[in-house]
Amino acid sequence: MKNLIIASEYRKLHLLQTLFKSPSTYQKKELAQLLHCSIKTLESDIVSLQELFDKDVAYVYEDRHKNILLDVGEHVNFAYLYAFVISNSHLYLLSKDIFVGKKINLAEWAAENYTSLPTMYRRVRQIDAYLAESNLILETQPLAIKGPEINLRFFYYQIYSKSYPYTEWPFPDIPYETINQFILQVEAFYHIHFSLSSRIKYAISIAISLTRAQQGHPVTLDESLIHAWNQAVATQPDKMTIDYGILENITGNSLSDSERYFTLITAFWSHFMYKDAFFSDLRAKYIPDMHVPKSMLASELTSVLDAYSIPNKEVAMRETVDFLACFTFIDKMTSLPEMPPAHVSPEEISLYKEIRAILTSYETHLDFRFIRQNKSEIVRHLTKIYSLLIDQSEQRPKIHVKVISENGYLWEEYVRREIKKKYSTDQVIFCSDTISHESQSHVDLIISDFPFYEQPDIQANGLLWNIPPSPTDYAQLDNILERCKA
């Protein structure tokens, strides 16, 4: 996975994720082993990150105990740091200049971006390897990315959506507010809904398509698909329509039927929710050649969840069909890498193997030609979705917690609020009794900032925490919850 992006940038992201999310502290030797690099390389990455981020955003440093630590600013999460690193990568900067139509050769681009030509040649080899994963190639005289148009649009969607929110809205000539007016019509027309984050991603995909079409790089879809889509539009209840003039006013040109249909297709690159079964029924009725085979495959894929108590398997089915719909047009989907999880559960390993085996059994069938080139991407995505559904369906252990602080009620309320941010009410229930020293049967755990050495009559388990709580404190509570679950 790490070969899909410049190795040094992947390593920096892995370093940030480790420091951001791990409850443990690391020294240089431990971190270097974890990141599979030398201590010298790690030191170079730390200096690079210090130069990249302002201290009020993120600061990586070594403390007096020789631990490598990360301080982050307010309202900064790992997704923001990921977007920041991607936005300052050679992959992003080079792709952005190519996307806006900048005519320049590699030597000129290296000079403009203060990069030596030998360094740039090394970067280009890595970028070219990543693009090849999407059946794309990089040309350098002048700089250009060539390949199937839909693959190109998905690649640019990846670049721009993964660099958001750091870049904010990256299309100055295409107002987001105008695109959103169009999306509101799509929602009403197809009885679906986009959340704020998925709405922005859908808007990015539309802006990319408009730009490519305006630059003279149209997308052309099969006539039978266009005919089926026109039939579906004509049978819309209440004679509702979508006003494509909203988008055409931006470009100054009319959109072909293929481009109009494609604005709907890219909705699957993001994520949407269903208000009712209207959209699913529409697809099944008017494009059965595409929808029915994918539904058949989705049915077998979701059967791996039969061993678990999933309350609403329809959600799994819908998520699977929607994701497989992406491969109706994209012959090869390659996403920018996600960081490896800190822990892979036995359930995830089992799901991964079962999903992969099912896909392998289908990949030689004509209706599922897309599987062979995209198997790893499909397995990764569905394993993550199914694991989430299993996790949500499990009966979580509940423990009754009492918080006591030597500094009084305000500090107790503060700790309760911090715990609520991390744990659901299905995991932690707070006891509201006011007698702080009394042992009561409904208290499973006492969390306090001072020990109860003088009160041996207290029978409940206790955790001695810092205020504010540290990652180590939360790790103690995690262990207790895990033991309860086991």
From TrEMBL:
The keyword Cytoplasm is annotated on this UniProt entry: no
Domain spans labelled M protein trans-acting positive regulator (MGA) HTH: 11-57
Organism of derivation: Listeria newyorkensis
Coiled coil regions, renumbered to chain: none
Name of this protein: Mga helix-turn-helix domain-containing protein
Keywords per UniProt: Transcription, Transcription regulation
Domain Mga helix-turn-helix, residue spans: 81-160
